[in-house]
Amino acid sequence: MAKKKIDFGRLVPMRAREFSIMDNGCVSVRQPRFFNGFVRKLAESVFHLPDVNVKLDDKGTFVWNLCDGKYSNADIAEKFAERFGNDDVYDRLYSFMCYLEKCEMISYVNREELENA
After folding, report:
1. Which range marks the domain in which residue 101 is found?
2. Most buried by CB count within 10 Å: which residue of 2, 10, 35, 69?
3. What is the total count of domains within the chain?
C-alpha cells in the first residue's frame, strides 16, 4: 500500500507547550530540558535542573501566535510574507516549524480532519 503524501501547507499547527509573553512582547516557551522520562526525573530530583525557556524573536513570536489551531501552514506563510517580506518565506517557515515539531512545541492536525469534525 502506497504511503499517502501529506501537504505541509494544509497542516494546522497547534501549540503544545506553556508559554509566556516577555516584557519586550516576544514569547518565551517553556520546554523540558530532557525528553526521556527517566533522565528527566533524575535531572529534576537529583540535579534540580528545571525546564528551560526558549525565547523567540519577533518573527518566531509572530508565527507562534498563529499556531492556535485556526491557521494552516499556508495561511501562516502568507501572513508572514505580508508582514516581513517574501524572502525565502516557505523554506524559513518549513525549517522553523520542523524545529518546533521536533522539540514537541507544536503538534499538527490535518485541515481535512478539522473540517470533517
Report:
1. 18-109
2. 10
3. 1
Q: CB-based contacts of 34: which residues, under 8 Å, 6+ apart? A: 40, 43
Contact call for residues 69 and 14 (beta carbons, < 8 A): yes
Task: Identify whether 65 is part of a domain.
Answer: yes
Q: Tell me what pLDDT residue 109 has.
A: 83
Rounded to two decimals, the pTM is: 0.80
Has residue 116 been placed in a domain?
no
pLDDT of 3-46, one tens digit each? 667 788 889 999 999 999 999 999 999 987 665 566 556 666 66
**11 within some domain:** no
In-domain check, residue 4 = no
